[in-house]
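subagent[fold] <- orchestrator: predict structure for attached chain, return tokens only, no commentary.
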Amino acid sequence: MHSRTFKNKTVAVFGLGNSGLSTAKCLLEGGAKVIAWDDNDDRRNAAQKLGASVTMFTEAVMKEAVALVLSPGVPLTHPEPHPVVEMAIAAGVSIIGDVEIFLKERRGGRVVGITGTNGKSTTTALIHHMFAHAGRSVAMGGNIGTPVMDLPELSDDGIYVLELSSYQLDLTPSWQADAAVLLNITPDHLDRHGDMAGYAAVKKKVFQHQQDGSFAVLNADDALCTQIARDIASEAEAQQILISTKQRLSNGVSVLNGLLEDASSPNHIWQTDISDIETLRGQHNWQNAAAAVAVCRAMGLSDHEIASGLNSFGGLAHRMEFITEKDGVKYINDSKATNADAAEKSLSAYDNIHWIVGGRGKAGGIAPLAPLFERVTHAYLIGEDASNFALTLEGQVPYTVCGTLDKAVADASAAATSNAPATVLLAPAAASFDQFPSFEARGDRFRELVLGEGA
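subagent[fold] -> orchestrator:
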């Protein structure tokens, strides 16, 4: 993506993570003068090597700029505006994010935006996969990993699939999507948005400026989503497509007991069974699949292309990732499940579970998962809070305090193999930092152990 809009203009870039550095690079290549700052020495050095003027932001510096590109992680309004935000407001400088610059710079391609409290990454990846699998020109980025300014320039028939956080939407005043998805809204990031009303208002922005011929996909099972659907019905010209995993829809996409029914197109009802697709197990993934099908149908994919895309989806690493099946035992890596709410999804999707759980516990521990304990044949406890988790399981689930992931995998594999068919599930319901630098490292180690690559 080449930057042209800010040629010979000064742009301030605050926050030099992956997206900040990517934006600074593109702005510099487009002839802009970039003033940049980050508290991290390595990031400042990286920006300096690109040619940016690296200096602490002051009121005088801000008065030079026509725009402030703010990292999504920097408070914009709550709990209070960051001092650099106050400087920009005082200087009359527009405050934007990298997605806003992307929209100004792109010369072709249709845009799909996906947001919601949960399921954004899987839905984004699935939509991208379905278009790519069908041979369409498609690029994926945003909150899912690749900074938007690192995406290629697509022709008019290309499709950009962007995952958007509430922070990113807050920094994209000209956001406009050809297809926009709102999966759900549950309490999250309230410190950054003030309250649920403020959080929902930001999520609603995914539908702003939509025009005739565009599509708005919303969750009919979510009260806040349905309220937003009513609101935008009179505000936008987009065609609404509802999705549900609880009710059959006459003009949307529903998934009931694994049977997906697409009635989003007039006079065309199409069904396919997705209950046996390992990478789309569980009601939460059925919701993701319904949203993806709604978008792909609206943007021209056929029955065959949609079915083929669903069945060939490989899933995301560490999110109910199917590793392998051997001797009647499935091995599932859900290392991303770092709290009880996240672990609930995978525990709900399997039976006869040999559950590897533990790490650095979070508030509430695993007590909220008690209704699902009947699905667990045996638990294998790891990490610093193993003893606390054992107290919760006492008298309800047989358990072994293993301590390490290596021992837990060995013990769980042996027991599950003698009790097949079964599932060995890594769903820690805890942070990884007591034993691993990240949930990704924990999941990678699990994969190595399961596949015999990590002796």
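orchestrator: received. Logging for downstream: The chain has 16 helices and 20 strands. The mean pLDDT is 95.
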